[in-house]
Structure formats: structure tokens, C-alpha cells
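User: Predict the complex.
Assistant: Input components as received:
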Amino acid sequence: MESCACGAPVSCGTKQGLIRLGIDLSHFDYVVAIAGNPNTGKSTVFNALTGLKQHTGNWPGKTVARMEGMFAHHGKRFKLVDLPGTYSLLSMTVDEEVARDFLLFGQPDTTVIVVDATNLERNLNLVLQVLEITDRAVVCLNLMDEAQRRGITIDDRELARELGVPVVPTVARRREGLDRLVEAIAGVATGAIRTNPRRLPCDPQTQAALDELVPLLENAVPGLPNARWVAMRLLDGDERVIEALENGELAQLVRPRNSATTRIEGVVSA
Amino acid sequence: MTHSTASTNPQIRNLIERAQRWRAQIGDTLHDRVVSAVFADAAAIAQRTVKRSGKPRSDWERRIDSLLTSRLWGFPIMLALLTVVFWVTIQGANVPSEMIATALFWLQDQLEALFNLLHAPWWLTGFLVHGVYRGLAWVVSVMLPPMAIFFPCFTLLEDLGYLPRVAFNMDRLFKRVGAHGKQALTMSMGFGCNAAGVIACRIIDSPRERLIAILTNNFVPCNGRWPTLILMATMFVGAAFPAHLASIAAASSLVAVTLFGICMTLLVSAFLSRTVLKGVASSFALELPPYRPPQVLRVLYTSIIDRTLLVLWRAVVMAAPCGGLAWILGNVHIGSASLMQHLASFLNPVGHAIGLDGVILLAYIVAIPANEIVVPTILMAYLNAGMMTEIDSMTELKNLLVNEHGWTLLTAVCLMLFSLLHNPCSTTLITIYQETKSKKWTAVAALLPLAIAFAVCFIVAQTARLLGWA
């Protein structure tokens, strides 16, 4: 992986901050996905980080396609991918499939889950589902100003402990908290921040099935990063995942990431 | 087994077989169990980390929402708002329309004098001044004022966050006819522009329901058709009532036409989902975005620049050559009649059968690229039909339509219905082709509304005549 090759130091001494690179997508070190419910300010976070002006609007379903942009931080270049807003990853709508396929097959180095602080409980549904797929996530607790106005306080440290990933409160519209967000993204991407994501509890029977299937899966596809999730999908009879397993798409994920990412993007955007 | 060729790797085959065996044991409930585990866990975490003090979510927002989306009041409020918007438009547009017309026709006289002074040949004066310029002048004075009032009002409602509430109210109806609830949103966008509405149908995931939404988007009037509807409502429907009721009657007739369009949307959706596009409606979550104070300046800017001027510009660009063409058609004679008269009399029997006339049908054919120019084309056709009358006010315009060309209330009603129901403009059709990638469905999108328009107008016209109303 990249982080091994360049031997990124745990904490960088130089203060280089955020450089917004817009759509200059040539060469990147890390891929960052942005997921979240609709209307949480995903596009605002995306624009604030990349300096792009993707259209934002008070209208569910505005972001129909994926948007990509770039930023640099401490000399490392991050490619940002704005996924369509979804409430869940478990049903079968096109939006959810695009988001889920990218998380699974695009293998982002970090996934930022933008969360509406005024409505944490519903937003956590998606957070928990994303954490089932990937270890490397940062929760961006957005719209903190609106939450404050409504008398809602959130213990973000406790939330981070519960979820096992960094939680950064932000007001993306006013660019508050974005520096910390970038630090967290970079930390998770480089491996400087170790995550220990919460996993859903599971009944004994399913657990037994997983205990049998996960080692088989890890044997058949060595190096697969989210074998538990894939095994769950197999138990659920997910055709898309079964197909990816059969035609070797899943196995190719384990190859060096940069080439895999480019290839997978073709799949996802098709 | 079914997966014989898919994988040659024995490990993977073994894995999939085992997974299937486990699946048979666990049963189909795994998905539901995972979903409820997610919900339970999310609730537990939220309980431990979120503290609420004071009032939960602003009270007035919730109260307004429950009123705007209530079963009892939702629709009456919707209708009332629509009526108010139309009423304001009609009331407000009268005076500026007259003023603009007076100014522009004064300028026409000056232009004519200038051309005569320069000894320009009669056909050049005729083509440029009586054809192109007069056409433009009518388009501007008839279309600009109502649009400059209607579009900002409509954008204001949009900006306040009212449209998603409309969608919420309509959702139940769309579900009942087997269509997607989000179709209420795409339909709302169609009120602005059908091509935009068709593109918006991408937010509907199921291909079946998306196709229904695309095919029926045309049944709500777009920017290009509002001016025609508003003009007819003011000039004929309003005029049929006593003066103090005229505006409200005209506004109500516009509401009625809009409602009829929505009913047709639902009817045709129901028809499609029960015949060629069978299936069950899928469910979705619609979030009601918070009310935001409308940015009045931005609303004015976008509705004046993006909508009013754009629509007007399209009309002008199309109307200028069309005005010239109409003048030529009206002044080139074959035998005793002009080309225009030949064409119009050829179309007349069909037009008459559906309550219109040959010229109106001709205008609809000319207006396939843009609905904006239906009224301008009709006017230019009439104005250049070889008469020497000078028309320079709204009253005279109405006299021309009624006295010279026999328009009645029935003509106006049929014109409104035809305008509402007929085929989408060519821009929308191209968009439909791009979105569906199917020539067949594009053809259906063009011919189905056209057939419905002919059928509805035919029934209305024949019934009215049979009962002696017209």
C-alpha cells in the first residue's frame, strides 16, 4: 500500500494546510469517498475541500452522477469522490448501488460520512452500514450550527468512542472545522490514525455461518479487506456480489490499488 | 446448478454452495434482521450521545408542515395558492400590456414613416415593418408582462420550500395509479420546462416508473404554454363574466386547466401502469427540507433572467422569421386566395371539428420547435390575411379574433385544452430520446398526447355544439 511505500510519518512537522486543486485529477496518492444522507451538505463539504462549485440545492436527488475533485495536504494529493446521497446501502436503488459499489470496488482510502447533526439517529443508520463495509472512515458531523439553534448537543467524543472512527463537528457552509476534517481524512488514509469500527451484533446462527464462510473467503480471495461484509452479502443472496465473486472481479480488488481504482471506475460509472 | 460456467475456481464454487446451504437454514429473514439491528443500534448510540434542551425542532415549522400536508387542508391550500398566483398575474399584467403595446405600435408608425421617407419598396416595408416588427411587438406586449409577474411568484413558492410539500401531498395519488411518488417532483419541474422535467426523471430509479413519468410530463403546462393559457383566460373566459368577477374567473379557469392537466397525468399514468408498463409502485423516503426565507433578489434575478427573458428570447427568435413567413404567406397569391388562405382552408375541416380553425392548427405545426410562438403565429396569420385593419390595442385584438375570425368562448377553451394536451415541443422530444434511447417511446411520447388532445377537444367541441352552447 501507498503508506508503506512512502513511509508517511505519524505526524507531519511542516504546516502546509489545504491546497484546493479543483478538477486537476492527474496523479493522486489517496482516494477519498464522500457518503451521506441526502440534504446533509455533502456537496458543500465537497466544494469547500476542492474549491469547486458543484451545484448545491435544497432538492433531494440533485446530485445524479458522481462528482470528482482534488485537494492536496502536506504534499499528498487526495482525489475526492462525491457519491449520491442515500439513506441506506441495503436496498437496491441505483443511487445506493453506485455508492455501495464504489465503497466496495473503488476501495477508497478514507470514506467521509457526512452526517446531519440535527438528525443523528437516522443518519447513524447509514454510518453503521458504511462501517460494515470499510474500516477507514471519518464521520463529519455537519450542520452543527443548526443543531445548536435547536438546542441539540452531541457528545462527539463519546460518539467517536462508540463508532470507533474519528468524528469531526463542522459547519461546512462557513468552513468551520474543515481543517480538523482534513487532518482526520489524511490521518485515516495514511494509517496514522488507527480505526476500530463498530460492527453490528449478530445472532449465533449467523455468527456460525460467518465463522465458516469468512476463512473460506479469505482463502479463496487472499487479502480481501472486507470478507465479513462479503460473507454477509452471500448469506443474503446478493446477486451482484455473487457475480463479482464468480467472475473474479472481487479477486482483482486485491491488486495494487491505483490500477484497480482506474479499472473499477469504468465499472462503476458504466 | 445454475452457475456452471461462471466460475472455474473450485474454492469459489465450494464457497458459494456452502453459502447457499447456510442461506437455506437461516431463511429469508436475514435482511430484515440486519435492517432492524442497524436501526436498534443507531437508536442506542443516538440515545447515549445526543442531548436535547429546550424545544425540539422549531414548533412553527412543524405546525405549518402539518397544515400544508394535512389530508384535509393540503389540497385546498394548494389550489388557493395557485389561484392567488394566477389572479395576481392577470390583474397585474393588464395595464403594462396595454402600455407596452401603445409604445411599440407608436414606434411602428415611426418606422413606417421612416421607410416611406426613404422610398423603400412596398414589399420591403411590408415584410420588415408589418411582418417582422409587428410580429415581435405583439409577442413582447402580450407575453412579457404576465411572465414577468407569474415566474417570480412561482419561483418564490419554489424557494420557500413549498414544492416538496406539494410532492408530499401528491405522493398518495401517484402511488394509487401505480407510479412513483417522486413523479410529483418531476411533474412540478415540468411546470417550468418539460425538457427539464424529463431530465429530472432520472431521480426515479425503477425504469418502468421513470418511463411513465417521462411520457406524462407533458401534461402540465410549461413556460412556453403559460402565456397562451393566460391570454385566453383573460381575453375570453374572464370577459364572459361581469367585470368585477373577470380576474377571479380567469384565474379559476387557469387553475381548472392545471388541475385537468394533473388529472390527465394521473389517468395516463394509471393507464400505462395497468397495460404496457405493468408493475407495483416502489416506495421511497421524501425529506421535507427546512423552510428558508426566500432570497427575494435572487428569485427576481433567476425568474427574470433565466425564465422570462429566456422564454421571450426563444419566442422572439422564432417569431421574427415566422412573422416574415406569415407576411409572405399572406401576401403571395395563387389564384384568388393567398397561400395562407389555401393552407388554412385545407386544415379548416379538421380544425373546426375540434373547436379550432385551420390557422390555429397551422400555428401548432409551425410551433413544433417552441410552444411560445403559437399565439404570435396565429396573430400574424390573421393580421396578414390581406386586411387593411390596423390593430393596436388589446380590445381591437379581441375584436379581430371575434368579429373577423369567429372566435368564441369554445374556441378559447379548446385552444387552452389543445395547448395543455398536445405533443411536447421538439426540444422536449429530443430530450426524451436522449433519456430513453428509444425511438419507439419517443414516438409514443409525441403521438399519445396528440391523440388525447384531438380526442378531448373533439368531445368538448361536439358536445358544446350539440347542446347549443356554441
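DSSP finds twelve helices and eight strands in chain A.
Let me know if you want any component modeled separately.
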